[in-house]
Amino acid sequence: MALQSPSLDVGGAILVKPTPASAGRGYWQSVGRRLRRDPVTLICAAILILLVLASIAAPYLYLADPYKTSMLRRLYPLGSPNHWLGTDELGRDMFARLIYGGRLSLFMGVTPVVCALLIGGSLGILAGFVGGKTNMAIMRIMDVFYAFPSVLLAISLSGAMGAGTENTLLSLTLVFIPPICRVSESVTTQVRGFDFVDAAKASGASAFTIVRVHVLGNVLGPILVYATSLISVAIILAAGLSFLGLGVKPPEPEWGLMLNTLRQAIYVNPVLAALPGVMIFITSICFNLMSDGLRAAMDVKA
Amino acid sequence: MLLYALRRLIYLIPVAFGVSLLVFALVHLAPGDPISAIVPPDAPKEVVDKLKEYYGFDKPLPVQYLRWLGVTLTGDLGTSIGTGRSVASEVGSAFGNTIILAIAATSLAFTLAVILGTAAAYAKSRIVDRLVTMISLIGVSVPHFWLAIVLVIIFAVELGVLPPMGIGPENSTGWRFDRAHLAHMVLPTIALSVIPLGVVTRTVRSTVKETLSMEFVTALQAKGMRDSRILFHVLKNAAPTCLAVMGLQAGNLIGGSILIETVFAWPGTGFLLNSAIFRRDLPILQGTTLVLAGFFMLLNLTVDIIQTMVDPRIKRG
User: Fold this and answer.
1) Does residue B140 sit at the A interface (CB-CB below 8 Å)?
2) Residue A8 has what pLDDT?
């Protein structure tokens, strides 16, 4: 079942295999072992780590100033001296801007998923574990958000609230809460039905202890795998919002925004105009492959 | 069957109520009050108050909501602040253009996806399977608005064989079935189809593969049934899952075509939404969102019902 898709569709249920709390350690060890034997995942992780490190360390990398414009050096082609990836429509160094662009693009892709994981995950586990009316209330509210195509929801919310980084983060978080909540609810409901939960209840464990020890250990894997598969969607969506002028404001370097401002240059220097998109593509493909690897290693059936 | 459809329709009512609340809230999410979008900042206070009274913004929010809901239910979506035309007619004509593009893109994507996915599931050689997996990976990973720009660069700028933007020749008033209009559709159709192609290929591949490993397939083979007949049975069993994903993808394609429509200046709902956002034309923003969400709900309902028709095993409470 295609869980991983730019449309957040949760078509089929994820099946959870019951693992008693005592078996937790060995499980994570075998996950680590399987990940180390998976070259594709390792390469993708390496590329992503490199991108993250480069964007964090950008100010110390002796790059050109990504904000410094020059009317004389506009749209230099690739391979120019001093500007080996050329310059943009305002004469700013492309290489520096692509590296600096990773800061906002990665931040705006990962943050909403993390926030949505915390909020949606908690809500979903709550709904699944408590069940009954609480479940009804939470899941029916999520259904309302499900009535919107995800891109439309993100764009309408951002459009109404106005451009800006915070508003983009807020609207993307809102978009990702419902799917994560739904997955969390479905796996938690399954785990609640396992015998060891009944056993824990019978032995007098408090609800909090049961959730912490028995439920979380079983549901965290599938929820995390699902959330990582959303990161690539989030990165594309965030870049898309900036591309429309709804996200990051100029002159900040951000891949989606750069794609937009360079659109006028496609007749002058087409290769240059396509560069920021290549960065988005590489990042999103790496996140997708890594999430696939993680799913295989954690043995999550989807 | 009819009962099931009816029950699903009734179930949609509370969801539709929630959707209307959310769409109504959109206007009030906007910074400042909704009036500030249409009056200059130095307008005298009496004029602002008059306008507020005229639009009903001086009433408490629940009253405003009920009034808005009442008017909307009669099919009146208000008047565009930018053009002065009725929102319903603006959205209506744009929706037609979006649907044309969506039909072309989904036909292309779903046909290819079924062929590729089935081929990969059946393939004895790893190369075919790998290739198809790669295609679907690229489909779900590529930023489609970037792909749109790359397509324009290759086919319009470099090769000059296809038009870079617009729905038709310059003096075209609307879509028609002729050579020039079809040529304008080629690039947006391809750009729109990559995501559904990737997602559906993945689904078809895994579903068909799973179905092939079921016992009934072995039984049919043992019985000596022709392979083409077996394929039919396999596809029929894989259909409900694939249909569900296709329905969601079609809806997402229509709701999410804003980026592609912006790149190609295609006068559809996405393009309308985009220009409404920048003119701060809130009635259009509201109306377009409401129409698209409503369509998405109905589409999902239809897919749900088709699913139960194809697969009698699905019986839902």
Assistant:
1) yes
2) 46
pLDDT in tens, B24-76: 888 777 766 666 666 666 777 777 777 777 766 777 788 888 888 888 888 78
What is the rounded distance in angstroms from the CA atom of residue A176 to the CA atom of residue A156? 15
Neighbour tally for B78: CB within 10 Å: 17
Q: What is the dihedral angle through the alpha carbons of A136, A142, A147, A150, rounded to the nearest 10 degrees?
A: -160
pLDDT of amino acid B191: 93
Nearest-angstrom CA–CA distance, B108 and B197 = 8
Query: What stretches of A9-164 show up as alpha helix (H) in DSSP?
Result: 24-36, 39-56, 94-130, 132-146, 150-161
**Which residues in A279-301 are b (16+ Cβ under 10 Å) and which e?**
bbbebbbbbbbbbbbbbbbbebe
Phi, psi of A264, rounded to the nearest 5 degrees: -65, -20
Q: Does B239 touch chain A (CB under 8 A)?
A: no
**HEC profile of B77-88:** CCECCCCCCEHH
Indicate whether B317 pLDDT > 50: no
Q: Residue A24's pLDDT is what?
A: 59
State the CATH architecture for A26-65+76-298.
Answer: Orthogonal Bundle (1.10)
Length of chain B: 317
Q: Identify whether the C-beta of residue A110 lies closer than 8 Å to the C-beta of residue A234.
A: yes
Distance CA B220, CA B215 (A): 9
The Cα-based distances of A9 to A178, A180, A233 in angstroms read 11, 11, 12
Mark out the alpha helices in A131-244 (DSSP H runs).
132-146, 150-161, 165-192, 195-202, 207-209, 216-243
Q: CB-hemisphere CA count at 13 Å for A83? A: 21
Spatial distance between the Cα atoms of A208 and A202, rounded to a whole number of angstroms: 14
Q: Does B9 touch chain A if contact means CB atoms closer than 8 Å?
A: no
Q: Do B256 and A11 touch (CB under 8 A)?
A: no
- Does any CB of chain A come closer than 8 Å to the CB of residue B292? yes
Q: Which of B116, B142, B146 to mutate to test the interface with A (most CBs of A within 10 A)?
A: B146
On whether any CB of chain B is under 8 Å from the CB of A270, the answer is: yes
- Taking the C-alpha atoms of residue A90 and residue A87, their distance in angstroms, rounded to an integer, is 8
**Contact of A183 with A139, CB cutoff 8 Å:** no
For the stretch B162-211, pLDDT in tens is 888 887 777 666 777 777 788 888 999 999 999 999 999 999 998 998 88
**Token digits for A234?**
């989030």
- Exposed e or buried b per residue across A9-20, where buried means at least 16 C-beta atoms within 10 angstroms of its C-beta: bbbbebebeebe
**Of B77, B74, B65, whose CA–CA distance to B21 is shortest?**
B65
Residues 6+ apart with CB under 8 A from B141: A232, A281, A284, A285, A288, B198
Question: Rounded to an integer, what distance in angstroms lies between the CA atom of residue B114 and that of residue B108?
Answer: 10
Contact A160 B282 (CB under 8 A): yes
Q: Which of B110, B149, B284 has the most A C-beta neighbours within 10 Å, making it the best mutation to test the interface with A?
A: B149
The closest alpha carbon to A112, from A174, A180, A178, A173, belongs to A173
Q: Cα–Cα distance between B304 and B5 in angstroms, integer?
A: 9
Does residue A11 register a pLDDT over 50?
Answer: no
